[in-house]
Design a protein that fits this description.
The structure is a single chain. The chain has 411 residues and is α+β, with helices and mostly antiparallel strands. The chain folds into four domains: 99 residues, Rossmann fold, CATH 3.40.50.20; 67 residues, 2-Layer Sandwich (Dna Ligase, domain 1); 132 residues, 2-Layer Sandwich (D-amino Acid Aminotransferase, Chain A, domain 1); 83 residues. Helices cover 35% and strands 26% of the residues. It contains 14 helices and 18 strands. An eight-stranded antiparallel beta sheet has the order 13-12-9-10-11-14-17-16, with helices on both faces. The longest helix is centred in the middle third of the chain and has 17 residues. The radius of gyration is 22 Å and the shape is globular. The termini are far apart. The chain binds adenosine-5'-diphosphate and magnesium ion. The site of adenosine-5'-diphosphate has 19 residues, from strand 6, strand 8, helix 9 and strand 13. GO terms for molecular function: ATP binding; ligase activity; lyase activity; metal ion binding.
């Protein structure tokens, strides 16, 4: 089994996927834009070959260089577990006749308007939405206002190819819309979307032949858009141990339908959905790759399994061997320091650990001396704690305590 894996070392999680591929017996050929000499030892050990390309997002160039590099070697899979390269992987598969999802299928997981159209065509509830393509500056306001008129307030404006809630805004009325039109003038393609009230969850899977062999739900506290709007918030995400509750079942049923509507094949999916006050599950978005910001680790801690390896097994051999009994709710709490510059101290951590120590499975908070990270650019912010507990309410309380009773400072 020879596998081309795009970006074997970056983002960080990819190193674990590289390991997973090697562990299920694949010969792994990495293609990335980092220097071979800078690959971490784990990745180097797991790779059978590595091609450094100048720009991993320059698709035509990467395809051509990879073709030359691989000449004469039969390849069985081309895989990516990172959103920006899922289309590139599909283009390589199509070009070389390698099994896996087509470009058209992957587009359904990448283009936010197309995915909603395909999901809606299958009779599934999605937010009303329109695509606005901005051609000229004069035109952009008009086109956006006209779309907003049809969609109705309150609404959401976001990039069609967005990520991490960047350039995403809620608008309650025409005045707010005008402000947002000005703020998003640099975005070429926008989605103007009905605002869905309610709680926000994920639905994550590993699939084989389009069917989930693994399922997970996690709750965002608060919703990602709010978490990205206010720096003082410590965003929390908790995997839900008990999937057998009415509201969660609604999301799981929705998610399964969506996988069918989009023609999923093998690998990870990461969907977001809303649970409305009226008790309805509404589709948000989906990608054919794992959630970022340590969600795979959270899922692993939820069941004491190794999804990095099982994703590899599903992708290479169409099989899944983990016993996925859900033992814990697993929460991650991202912290953002007060002040600018370097971390100077963490208040409340010792007390928190004295109280909840046995529930803490990772402490990756930045320590004094480290420079602060850009909280808008990375959800990981100034670090995080991962905790777990078998009882949902207790887990939520522990997360809330970490969010409110631990304070990081910087200057
Ligand atoms: N139609 C909607 N109604 C309410 N909130 C939304 C809607 N669309 C997006 N959001 C909020 O904005 C966030 C980012 O939007 P999303 O479509 O997930 O894009 P991305 O995660 O790729 O930036 C969501 O997680 C959610 O909090
Ligand atoms: Mg999202």
């Amino acid at each position: 089994m020879r596998v081309v894996f795009l970006g074997p070392a970056y983002p960080l999680e990819m190193q674990q996927f590289t390991r997973g591929l090697a562990e299920v017996g694949a010969e792994v050929y990495g293609v990335g834009d980092g220097a071979a000499a800078s690959l971490p030892p784990l990745v180097r050990k797991c790779l059978s070959g590595y091609l450094q390309v100048p720009r991993i997002l320059d698709e035509d160039d990467v395809i051509e260089r990879t073709r030359v590099w691989l000449r004469g070697r039969e390849i069985d899979r081309v895989l990516s577990a990172w959103e920006p390269t899922v289309i590139l992987a599909a283009r390589m598969r199509e070009r070389w006749g390698i099994p896996g999802m087509s470009v058209d299928t992957v587009n359904g997981f990448r283009d936010k308007q197309l995915m909603k159209e395909r999901v809606a065509a299958a009779g599934i509830r999605v937010p009303r939405a329109e695509r606005v393509v901005r051609t000229s500056r004069a035109e952009l306001g008009e086109a956006t206002r006209a779309a907003a008129e049809r969609v109705g307030f309150p609404l959401i404006i976001k990039p069609i190819a967005g990520a991490g809630s960047a350039d995403t805004y809620a608008c309650r009325d025409a005045a707010e819309l005008d402000e947002v039109i000005a703020k998003t003038a640099h975005v070429r393609e926008l989605s103007v979307e009905e605002y869905i009230e309610g709680e926000e969850f994920t639905y994550d899977t590993v699939c084989v032949d389009g069917h989930p062999v693994y399922e997970n739900v996690a709750q965002y506290l608060p919703k990602p858009l709010e978490a990205r709007s206010e720096e003082w918030i410590s965003p929390v995400i908790i995997t839900v141990r008990d999937l057998d509750q009415a509201k969660i079942r609604a999301g799981v049923a929705l998610g399964r339908q969506v996988l069918g509507a989009l023609g999923m094949g093998e690998g990870f999916t990461h969907m977001e959905w809303f649970y409305t006050p009226a008790g309805e599950a509404v589709f948000g978005e989906i990608g054919c790759r794992p959630g970022g910001a340590r969600l795979v680790d959270q899922m692993n801690y939820t069941s004491d399994i190794d999804l990095f390896r099982e994703w590899a097994r599903a992708s290479c051999w169409k099989s899944f061997e983990a016993e996925a009994a859900r033992k814990y709710n697993c929460g991650i709490i991202f912290k953002r320091a007060k002040g600018r510059g370097r971390i100077t101290g963490i208040a409340g951590l010792e007390r928190f650990k004295a109280q909840f120590g046995p529930c803490v499975v990772e402490d990756e908070l930045l320590r004094p001396g480290s420079p602060r990270r850009d909280w808008k650019a990375t959800l990981v912010s100034d670090g995080y704690l991962i905790v777990r507990h078998a009882n949902w309410d207790v887990c939520r309380q522990i997360c809330a305590a970490a969010a409110t009773d631990i304070t990081m400072f910087a200057e």
